[in-house]
Amino acid sequence: MGKANQTPLMRQYFQIKDEHPGTILLFRVGDFYETFADDAVLISGELGITLTKRNNGGDQTPLAGFPFHALENYLPKLVRKGFKVAVCEQTEQPEDAKKAGRKIVDRAVTEITTPGVILSDNLLEYNRNNYIASLVPAGKKTGVAFSDISTGEFALAEASSLAALQELLESVRPSEVLIAKTKHAELDKALWGERNLGGQSSSSGDGHSTMDGHGSANGRGSGDGSRSANGRGFSRATQSTVTHLDDWIYEGDYAVTTLMEHFQTHSLKGFGVEELSVAQMAAGALLHYLKETQKSALSHLKRLYAYRNEDFMVLDPSTKRNLELVATMRGEQGVDGTLISVLDKTCTAMGGRLLRTWVIRPLTELAPVEERLSAVEKLLQDHELRSTLREELSGLGDLERLMSRIATGRTNARELKQLQLSAERLPRLREILERLDDAFLERVSGRINPLNELKERISEALIEEPPVQTREGGMFREGFDA
């Protein structure tokens, strides 16, 4: 059907859809998120919701949707299936559009969620990092950058061989891997395993493409390295969704400039990554992708660090499985019966993630191992202080992920209040750690920012029990002026 015959709403929908190819577009219409045409047929089958039709200038366009309050239920299901989902919101009130003489309200995509770019607690495992990685092959060397946008971690590394790359990916276990369209052949063995399951690279028109193979029209990789309709594939070797980006995003000047502009610096020397030139290209492309999907400045990504795989003992999948470190040999859901289930007595989600990382990345240097053991011994000897420390930690929210959601504008007043209450415990935590008289714990104490100004500001602004939904109002104290 020609655009001239489409209704204004459908013209707007298809315009925004064209601007975000390779995604499922959830289009806000009043109290519903609706999808049309191919997207409607797709989510009807994937989510088991009713497929209907909508009049579109005489044409009956497929339609499937759900109430806006069900987004937190349906979005995780789509992302876990490997889909890339764009959420399109109404950016003005209907009465404002009517005053301006327009038949429909303005709308815009406010967030794109992919398997590797997630901020919602409903999609994340509280005690496990969710990494996205970017790869750049350069001869025998491969530049690697990886980030967990939900915690603000951002690292660079370079692998000197295929084996080293496979070891690094096995250590990080990214949920999504980004590579340039024309570079997939050089990375086939690392991403797809010994058998080359891919073929020619084909573009989906949005800077994303996947391996050609057995065509899949269901909007995601089929699990065998095949092409998918939404510009994604799946690596059996890394258990990651694979997304291909336009080559220009990986060009050296653009990538490094993107990094320096974000970190507001004239060079990357201060981060200790100046010699990782190939990894810098991977990092610049990764930062570009994160900003494109999140539609925000990502101010919580404040530092880069050089990741040295040789600092850790690399455990291959077979070893992890046989030792049942974080999963059972039977492949059952959950961690019951694993080593981590015995060791993890942490009081916070942050501690749970850190412990899991320590278990699957054992140190190879003796000195830091002895430092950790010394700190454990101090805590073991002082039962009273240890109990007090656990009590204080138990009252902490997930500060890493709270700060990330705040920085990207995806929080609410109740979470801000949680941040304030958590921050009020930080001075006491510092005091307890200092009293233990241990070099390792003292360094941890020194890194704790008490956030005095922030917690005072939140306390002055918000009532004690603010509503969850911002639209409800009534969150500010009487007389407060922002």
Describe the model.
The protein has 482 residues and is an alpha/beta fold. It folds into three domains: 3-113, MutS, DNA mismatch repair protein, domain I (3-Layer(aba) Sandwich); 132-309, 2-Layer Sandwich (Nucleotidyltransferase, domain 5); 317-472, Orthogonal Bundle (MutS, DNA mismatch repair protein, Chain A, domain 3). Helices cover 39% and strands 17% of the residues. It has 18 helices and 15 strands. It has a seven-stranded mixed beta sheet, with helices on both faces. Strand 3 and strand 4 (59-67) form a beta hairpin. The longest helix is centred in the middle third of the chain and has 18 residues, at 277-294. The protein starts with 7 loop residues before the first helix and ends in a 21-residue tail after the last helix.
- Kindly provide the name of the CATH class of the largest domain: Alpha Beta
Which spans have pLDDT < 50 for at least 5 consecutive residues? Answer: 194-232
**What strand order characterises the main sheet?**
13-14-10-7-8-9-15
CATH second-level architecture of the largest domain: 2-Layer Sandwich
Task: Report Rg.
Answer: 24 Å
Oligomer: single chain
> First CA to last CA: what distance?
50 Å
Query: Beta-strand percentage?
Result: 15-25%
What is the approximate shape? globular
Give me the CATH fold name of the largest domain. Answer: Nucleotidyltransferase, domain 5
- Total helical segments: 18
Let me know the largest β-sheet.
Answer: 7 strands, mixed
Which structural class is indicated by helix and strand composition?
Answer: alpha/beta
> How many beta-strand segments?
15
The CATH superfamily label of the largest domain reads MutS, connector domain
Fraction of helical residues? 25-40%
